[in-house]
């Protein structure tokens, strides 16, 4: 009778032998393949997120720009009740420059024609991208509050008396004074205690608005804004 005394220990040795080199290499290859797939999915998701985020920012900026343009264009050419005024003037210096040429009209467009524009682009509009149109809008300053004259002006050089407030217009503002009969553009050289001055200092070619505006005429700050791709 033959007794196999080592059969149990041989089976145990086989069980404890571990993985062979081929098995380890195969397991590592499969792990690397799975890890590569996970990394590829992560990179793809990250790229997709960044693309979506950039597109969202572009759309958000576009909506803001359109909203700003819409409000500016809607308020362009505001003259109160002076729809057909019998008198229009400006006392501004450099009145032919695009920023101060309020008599030109509320809106001015420059159409791109290659590296130039039609009409010729004002030299003060710098760094406009070739091939990009330019839109210039003249309108009351955003959130501007008109001030009402509380006394008649004696002559066009007289100061304007309004309610003694600290808002509405500020020194160095470009402003429009208007009634139902006339409108005039000028630069505010001083505003204090309800008195608006418009002397020749710092921006006015003449101290006269050339029209004796009467009580209840209104003054509002105005601005010129140019929109273009820089």
Topology at a glance:
Layout (H helix, E strand, L loop, with lengths): L6 H9 L5 H55 L11 E4 L16 E7 L2 E3 L15 E7 L6 E2 L11 E2 L12 E5 L3 E6 L2 E3 L2 E3 L20 E10 L3
Parallel strand pairs: 1-8
Antiparallel strand pairs: 2-3, 2-4, 4-11, 5-11, 6-10, 7-8, 7-11, 9-10
Plain-language structure description:
The protein is of the alpha+beta class. The protein is built from two helices and eleven strands. Helices cover 28% and strands 23% of the residues. The strands form two sheets. Strands 1, 2, 3, 4, 5, 7, 8 and 11 form an eight-stranded mixed sheet that branches. The longest helix has 55 residues.
Summed up, what is this model?
With about 230 residues, this protein is of the alpha+beta class.
Residue fraction in strands: 15-25%
The span between the termini is 103 Å
Q: Segments where pLDDT lies below 50 for 5+ residues? A: none
Estimate the mean pLDDT confidence: 86
Features:
230 residues, eight-stranded mixed β-sheet, elongated
